[in-house]
Amino acid sequence: MLEWVRIPLDHEVPEGSMTPVTLAGKRLILYRTRAGYFVSERRCTHQGADLLRGYFEDETIECPVHQGRFNVRTGKALSAPVTLALKTYPVRAEGEAIFVELPGPAAGQP
């Protein structure tokens, strides 16, 4: 079961920036682009590097270790050495509140 979870923010996320978020035991990144907000896993699919240390521009995050790039909107791997997509999550903004859709506690239960 999926549920919308409010992202607790103690600051505004300016356009063109990213911020770490931990929800439901998941280490995530919230990105803000001209097109809106996007959320992805925080670890590179290549060797697990922390993408929060990477270079973020437009809708692309670059891994700080091997420079593989991902589209933050879709998670698609854009350049070698990354080949596996980055896990992304649906996001919605309601006024100043931002929500991400995550598996709830009952996810995977019969």
Brief digest:
With 110 residues, the chain is mainly beta. It has strands at residues 2-6, 17-23, 26-33, 36-41, 55-57, 60-62, 69-71, 88-89, 91-94, 97-103. A hairpin with a 2-residue loop joins strand 2 (17-23) and strand 3 (26-33).
Query: Would you count the extended β strands for me?
Result: 10
- Which sheet architecture does the biggest sheet show? 4 strands, antiparallel
Beta content? 35-45%
Mean pLDDT across the residues is 93
Low-confidence regions: 106-110
Q: Given the helix and strand composition, which structural class is it?
A: mainly beta
* Tertiary shape: globular
Distance between the termini: 10 Å
N-to-C SSE string, H for helix and E for strand: EEEEEEEEEE
Whole-angstrom Rg: 14 Å
Keyphrases for this structure?
110 residues; mainly beta; three-stranded antiparallel sheet; 0% helix; 44% strand; disordered C terminus
Characterise the protein shown here.
The chain is mainly β and 110 residues long. It contains no helices and ten strands. Strands 2-3-4-8 form a four-stranded antiparallel β-sheet, with no helix packed on it. A three-stranded antiparallel β-sheet has the order 1-10-9, with no helix packed on it.
Topology:
Elements: E1 2-6, E2 17-23, E3 26-33, E4 36-41, E5 55-57, E6 60-62, E7 69-71, E8 88-89, E9 91-94, E10 97-103
Antiparallel strand pairs: 1-10, 2-3, 3-4, 4-8, 5-6, 6-7, 9-10
